[in-house]
Amino acid sequence: MVTFQQKILHLVKCFRRQWPLFSNSERTTVCGADCMLMALQLSMAEVNKQHHGDFTVSLSDVLEMWNYLLHDKLGLYENMNEPENYADVKKAYHAFLARSNMLDLIDIYQKCSSLGLLAEDEIISPVQLLEFISGVMNAQENNGSILSTPIQINRQGQEHMKVTILAKKFVCSYLSLLVNSKDDLALAHILNVPDRGLGREAFTNLKHASQERKMSIFLMATSFIRTIELGGRDSASSMYDPLRAHVKGLSNFVNFIDKLQEIVGEVLNTRIAGGRILSTVKMHLIKGRSNGDPFCEAVEEAVQDLDLKIKNIIDSQQETLTASTTGVSPAR
């Protein structure tokens, strides 16, 4: 029997194998539930700025919009009241994904279904996907497991879980940005990890500059730093350019991504390249930390897990298809 988790994984595999049917770029990445919610929040903030002049949004409004968006996209929105400015938010949400070269799980699910790419035992109902993305299904599955016993996880266990999730998110975000340089959500996660002095102000300045130039945030940062490196600090921009205050941090970030891209270009063996990239990211994240630091241990665990998954994916591809017929580049 195929589990629901396996069905979701099969959706993603269909997308990877048949990417030309979904997108014009093989570097298009999948936007999962957490990224979908973040993209929606940013889109709502943009719409609020247009309508009310305030680039903020309340959590209750985000959750209301999130619930309606999921039901709407899955065709399950009967007897629901449409939130204020929903049409504008939905348009901004899809525009954000398009700019970031991303597709969300619902888009992939609907495309796979319409093209008949799913076997009978792999078909997912709209209600099931709704429950999965909203987290209801995970909670239901845990109700029958040891994890759901009345014994509460102690504070130490909660902290360990939080650090583990953060470590994996940081490592995955570096990998995601390496594959898809337009992924602004991944960049937001790692712009200041480790600390580069690039806080909220730096990200906001980058975002505004990228919108003015109609380019991704990463391309904006790269363009800014390249101009400085080629022509000197004074030639990069006017004295009043807000990005001038973040030259050091942005240079550190861009040059590190350059280092990862060099590995992709120079190491032809994908297994070795994947391992070397993960090792480089690991050393970057734990630099300056003590060996007993919980974050260091969490990063080590995340890297080991991802290294194994990458090697399993490569082995699986080699068993079924030769590198020349996968339709996926070695870099991907």
Automatic annotation (TrEMBL):
Its main location: cytoplasm. One of its GO terms (biological process) is negative regulation of double-strand break repair via homologous recombination. GO terms for molecular function: DNA binding. It is found in: Cytoplasm; Nucleus. SUPFAM superfamilies: P-loop containing nucleoside triphosphate hydrolases (SSF52540). GO terms for cellular component: chromatin; cytoplasm; nucleus. Keywords: Cytoplasm, DNA damage, DNA repair, DNA-binding, Nucleus. The keyword Coiled coil does not apply. Belongs to the PARI family. This is PCNA-interacting partner. It comes from Vidua macroura (Pin-tailed whydah). The lineage of its organism: Eukaryota, Metazoa, Chordata, Craniata, Vertebrata. The gene is Parpbp.
